[in-house]
Amino acid sequence: MSIPRITKVETTIIDLPTIRPHHLSMTVMMNQTIVLTRIYSDDGICGFGESTTIGGLSYGAESPEGMKLTIDQYIAPLLIGQDATNIHLLRKVINKNIQHNTFAKAGIETALLDAQGKRLNVSVSTLLGGAVNTKLSVLWTLASGDTQKDIEEAKQLIAENRHNTFKLKIGRNDPKIDVAHVSAIKKALGDDIKITVDINQAWDEYIAKKWVKVLQENGIDLIEQPIVKTNFEGLARLTQYFEVPIMADEACATISDAMKLCKIRGGSVFAVKIMKTGGLYDAYKIAGMTEACDIALYGGTMLEGTIGTVASAHVFSTATNMSWGTELFGPLLLTDDIVKKPLTYKNCALELPTGAGLGIELDDDKIEQYRRK
Ligand code: MUC
Ligand code: MG
């Protein structure tokens, strides 16, 4: 049998509006920009991948326009003519030639895995060894910027049985205002509804110590990245000091970050995202590390569209320590999609598609409609 060779790498920037403004400590999102990568090979197979960040350059070090350029100019030439089936060898070549740029690399790795799954007629989770969970619990982020609107949104989603856990994005305002907002929502939704809080690095360690205490007293279930991502020891101190679990998000980006944080227990939960790790394989490795250290795993999102979300779901489905579930709701935050059949969200969970590769089909008309011209 001849070896399938890569013939073309194509990238497209897609702009999709959000259903409402999404407030984070560093930006307010009105739309989401997806870099779609399609990798073609001479056996007729095409794999899809997505590279997505939040708010241009306000969250991560790569912009959508920069990711496209990195892929077109630097990654694609390394792939053309290469064996499409040896993904580890391709990763090695890419990592040797290109430093950092994990978002761009994540889209490439996803497309290679999607293609290989299609080639072998197995799903991406099967390629990774098999799914332990085919239904992944999914929370929803309340981030309208208005306490009353957030409460109404949550009540509606609880009534629909779409979500029973909510994450609140804070850090834009004075901590006193933010903590009052969180406490009002917790009180309005009751004890059965879990509330997690993401500060996105907005507090210093002293402020965090002061206000996490109040959040803990108000029954908040999980505190995400309260302090700057570089203060690993601070995360370890907060983890040790508080009963409420502290989660590392921005701090826990790559496998070496995860290793350093494991060593000092810089969090009792780690948020893993394929955009931070540079793809599914390193996310899988972090899952192994946390399992070994008895640290819980949380399936994070960079608010990707369906391709990135389903890629993340395939890797998270293989993990055995996902005790905090996932936040893989990205497609639900968007007014439209570029796939033919949207993902199934039911009973507070995302159902893993069963088809070959990622298990999704692209809608070319929608790509044409939302493609940046
Ligand atoms: C983040 O930092 O967790 C994930 C969910 C959400 O609303 O924002 C993202 C980013
Ligand atoms: Mg976060």
TrEMBL record:
> Which pathway is this protein engaged in?
Aromatic compound metabolism
Q: What is this protein called?
A: Muconate cycloisomerase
Q: Tell me if Zinc is a UniProt keyword of this record.
A: no
Gene3D superfamilies cross-referenced by the UniProt entry: Enolase-like C-terminal domain, Enolase-like, N-terminal domain
Q: Report the residue ranges that make up the Mandelate racemase/muconate lactonizing enzyme C-terminal domain in this protein.
A: 147-245
Write down the InterPro entries for this protein, in alphabetical order: Chloromuconate_cycloisomerase, Enolase-like_C_sf, Enolase-like_N, Enolase_C-like, Mandel_Rmase/mucon_lact_enz_CS, Mandelate_racemase_C, Mandelate_racemase_N_dom
SUPFAM superfamilies, per the entry: Enolase C-terminal domain-like (SSF51604), Enolase N-terminal domain-like (SSF54826)
Q: State the species of origin.
A: Algoriella xinjiangensis
Isomerase as a keyword of this entry, yes or no, is yes
